[in-house]
Design a protein that fits this description.
Largest sheet: none
Structural class: mainly alpha
Number of strands: 0
Distance between the termini: 42 Å
Shape: elongated
Length: 192
């Protein structure tokens, strides 16, 4: 089973979604209650743009295995994509409870909180993500967005300036920094 899971993950990582979908579907026929494959199939559905079907698969994966943090993480991501922020926050809080060292769960939780208008809480979760995965520029950008929304532009500007010039930095980071420079860094923006 582990070899099949590794192959499915490799197909996903190399963006061979059709092949991954066929392989995972065949495996699910053999092992219909295997939560990891239900979760992997949901990732294929998300990549194909079928967020609602992905959400159902992730939810089923959490029901099959109540302590599967990755399923709660992916379920939360799908709920964010569907703009169901309260449900996403709940799923992502469960992911971090199950796996307190899962940086991406804190990052996603921060994004859900920010989208739900809870900027200060989003800052805290983004900081936790970065503490677990220092140097992750996407997570640093998410922190900067949360800081701007929390009316803390000077801190956001420092985060963005530290990112400046790094090839891996999200393109939006430079635009947000320019926006803060244009406003004098004195007032907050929505970070979008």
């Amino acid at each position: 089973i582990r070899a099949k899971e590794n192959l499915a993950e490799a197909l996903l990582e190399t963006q061979q979604y059709q092949e991954a979908g066929r392989f995972i579907d065949a495996t699910l026929k053999q092992y219909p209650s295997f939560s990891q494959f239900e979760c992997l199939r949901g990732q294929v559905d998300m990549a194909a743009g079928d967020i609602e079907l992905a959400r159902k698969r992730f939810q089923r994966a959490t029901e099959l295995k109540r302590d599967y943090a990755d399923a709660f993480l992916w379920w939360g991501r799908s709920l964010v994509a569907l703009q169901d922020y309260p449900a996403a926050i709940s799923a992502l809080r469960e992911a971090v409870r199950l796996s307190p060292s899962l940086a991406s769960a804190y990052d996603c939780l921060g994004q859900a909180l920010l989208a739900n208008g809870q900027a200060e809480h989003a800052v805290r979760e983004a900081q936790r993500a970065i503490k677990l995965k220092p140097g992750n520029l996407t997570m640093e950008y998410h922190l900067a967005q949360a800081l701007v929304a929390a009316q803390r532009p000077a801190e956001a500007k420092r985060v963005l300036q530290n990112m400046a010039g790094k090839a891996e930095a999200p393109q939006q980071a430079q635009a947000l920094l320019e926006q803060l420079d244009d406003s004098g860094g004195e007032r907050g923006t929505d970070g979008q």
